[in-house]
Amino acid sequence: MNKEIVDKLSQIQNPVSGKTLSEEDRLIDVEMKGEDLHIKYKRDGISPDIKQTLEKNILTALKDFVSEDNIFLLSVSENSQDVTSKQTADSVNPKNPAQLKVGHGTVGEKRKIPGVKNVICIASGKGGVGKSTFTANLAVTLAKKGKKVGIIDADFYGPSIPVMFKRREHRPSANEEQKILPLENYGIKFISFGNFIHEDEPVVWRGPMLGGVLNQFFFETEWGELDYLLLDLPPGTGDVQLSMVQNIELSGAIVISTPQDIALLDARKALHMFDKLDVHVIGMVENMSSFICDGCGKEHFLYGTGGVVSSCGELGVGYLGQIPLDIGLRKGADFGTPFMTNPEKHSESKVWSAYLDISGKLDSYFYPDDNKKKGLMGKLFS
Asked: Where does residue 179 rank: exposed (0-12), middle (13-18), buried (19+ CB within 10 A)?
């Protein structure tokens, strides 16, 4: 089967040059390891967007040989900054790139972000609970409801929104007033520290300096009119959270946790932080609540069950819902196509229903009159 796979791979074309991987001598290694297929190829001269297209073509070409879940792609490049067209070059390296002002932030009177109706921070007490994935898919779901949505990726130490929205290595530009113009994809505007530094570059800035950048994202970015601006916060209760609360008027917070006790202990710290800072917690979301095996069909509660619901009851916090594990969520994040952008593939899943339900609760919280009207019209015309 290896020869057939190699032959199939060799015929796949580079979307820009039109030449095959064989003609461009890009294939380095193709190896079956048990049921898994590992493919290593040269990426030189291929931009991030083209890379996504190429890898999707690879997965499609091999679907009759190996399950998509068992294909692992590794690209290597001497210069991953190469671009392949003028259009790509302009988006990655704009003519008037936005500049970050490296300095200490100042604490003053809380301000509203011009044009933004609701600012909601998405928080967790610890890392690895799926906070950024939740932020991305909630934003897409709200946009599908007709809302104008933006994201500030405030997780300076591990920014992942550029990857999830397929804008890796893209650099924001600035307008004539030198205000940052957010990047955009899937109808979502967003800004991330990850678009100003190389992916491999560590962030060794002190908290006050990051507070200055955060203020620039708040008040020196051209957001336009937004119904929701979601703030994807770093884990914990540190400087970034304090800078945010001290400088802007927040509409509320959503806390993400898995059901396991160790995650809930840290989530409680986040809840108490918001309480002390007088920020209303809209509710908690239980992420990775369960996993349904595609082999036996049985639902498994890998991290326990009911922990978030119990905590909400104890702490007097609203419960927004639970989101099960789904391989589609991981793939969507890795390939820059959030789960909720693909109704044809996912609309029958529990994850899809969960995001619709959570976004509906959030929208009803902030726009109760609009949702009452929608409910009434539905009853009149049903």
From this structure: middle
